[in-house]
Amino acid sequence: MIKVTQKATVELKSLLGQKNAPEGSGLRLSVERGGCAGLAYAMRITLPQDQDEIIDLDGTRFFVASDSHELLAGCTIDFCDSLSDRGFKIYNPNAARSCGCGTSFEPAQEDKKPEYDPALDGTNCK
User: Fold this and answer.
1) pTM of the shown model
2) pLDDT tens digit sequence for 45-101
């Protein structure tokens, strides 16, 4: 199960209204191969797919892709709004390290400590 902050819930509600999203839509979270750290977070406004975990909060819905449950278990979804950054953020306890931009990560592996990789300082993010 993931946790969602109140700020993320409020922002999603606003975003769904701005996009005139169909009834039942929400923010779908998944993990895909790619990014500069090996795996990348993907977020889309959409309807749920079969087998998605559905989280209903204060009139909003978050969906976790069935093939991403393990990599997103225990995550916290927040919303950042600062001078240099704006958007939904995933804080993932399953990540051994994350890219400087926070959109990709390397999953933690038991008994393995990640080495520093200067390629993950955010300069190579796409």
Assistant:
1) 0.77
2) 999 999 999 999 988 999 999 999 988 999 999 998 888 888 998 888 877 666 655
Structure token pair of residue 84: 């240099």
Residue 106 near residue 38, CB atoms below 8 Å:
yes
| Rounded Cα gap, residues 16 and 45, in angstroms | 8
* Residue 28 burial by Cβ neighbours in a 10 Å radius (0-12, 13-18, 19+): buried
Judge whether 126 lies within some domain: no
Number of structural domains, the chain? Answer: 1
Domain that holds residue 112: 3-120
Q: Which of 47, 53, 56, 44 is nearest to 71 (CA)?
A: 53
Residue 93, C-beta contacts closer than 8 angstroms, at least 6 positions apart: 74, 75
Backbone angles phi, psi at 7, to 5 degrees: -60, -40
Please report whether residue 125 resides in a domain: no
Pairing of strands 3-4, 76-81: parallel
Q: Domain containing 81 — which CATH number?
A: 2.60.300.12
